[in-house]
Specification:
The protein is of the alpha/beta class. It contains eight helices and nine strands. The chain has two domains: 2-152, SPOUT methyltransferase, trefoil knot domain (Alpha/beta knot), CATH 3.40.1280; 169-230, Orthogonal Bundle (Trp Operon Repressor, Chain A). It starts with a strand and ends with a helix. It binds S-adenosylmethionine.
Length: 232
């Protein structure tokens, strides 16, 4: 699977793929990463990609011409490329989106800066538009990395143990139960004793109950859905 990042700050994005799981996946040719800058498509003599907003107002906006040229080329080279824009003014990105998008062959993240990207670019090229939460960041690079990481985990072979995906938070609307590493007794702080008794069905019941309490406390919105929905 290929990810392209449209960004004027490749140096913020590229190092993320030089360590840990995503580096291993890249080295194993499971994932491919590409970085493209609209500056290379700017006809301005200073390679500018931003301009003042039509109608005034504070701040600059990505001007349409370089983005149109860049994204047209991507579309021309790969008609399956799925183009995703990042902005706080969009639907929230969810685990279910990560799973669905992991089936695509090529995802292109268009990272905004300044006040954002000229809306004509979004209307022309967006297959989807996402927000990663109810806050405003300085740029789309972190949101793109967040989404890329979450999507990559669902690409077969990227995680050592694909089974671990089934018990993660947000599967079936519940948050995962807490985990405890060995030793069971750390300076008199004990992990729950039921985890030591080797009864796997009791351990599963215990984890499920803690999972429900945790979800009810931290995410009553999800707990409602769990009650109404699958009740897994
Ligand atoms: N003026 C915009 C607004 O109020 O909706 C915010 C622009 S923000 C300063 C600059 C860029 O950061 C955006 O174009 C977007 O790419 C990215 N960004 C910031 N917060 C984000 C979020 N919560 N989710 C996704 N992208 C975000």
């Amino acid at each position: 699977m290929k990810f392209s990042f449209v960004t004027i700050f490749k140096e913020l994005v590229a190092p993320y793929f030089e360590a840990s799981i995503l580096k291993r996946a890249k080295d194993a040719n499971l994932l491919e990463f590409e970085f493209v800058t609209p500056r290379d498509y700017s006809e301005d003599k200073f390679k500018r990609t931003d301009d003042y907003a039509v109608g005034g107002g504070a701040g600059l906006v990505f001007t349409p011409a370089p983005m149109f040229a860049l994204l047209s080329q991507i579309r021309e080279e790969d008609s399956d490329a799925h183009i995703v824009f990042l902005t706080p003014a969009a639907k929230p990105f969810k685990a279910s989106d990560a799973k669905r998008l992991s089936k695509k062959s090529h995802i292109v993240f268009v990272c905004g800066r300044y006040e954002g990207i000229d809306e004509r670019v979004v209307e022309e090229f967006a297959d989807e538009v996402f927000s990663i939460g109810d806050f405003v960041l300085t740029g789309g690079e972190l949101p793109a990395l967040v989404m890329c990481d979450a999507i990559s985990r669902f690409v077969p072979g990227v995680l050592g143990n694909d089974e671990s995906l089934d018990v993660e938070s947000f599967e079936g609307y519940l948050l995962e139960a807490p985990s405890f590493a060995k030793p069971a007794d750390f300076n008199g702080l004990f992990s729950p004793s039921i985890l030591l008794k080797g009864n796997h069905s009791k351990i599963a019941d215990f984890k499920k109950n803690v999972s429900k309490f945790r979800t009810k406390y931290f995410r009553p919105d999800l707990y409602e859905k769990f009650l109404k929905g699958t009740m897994r």
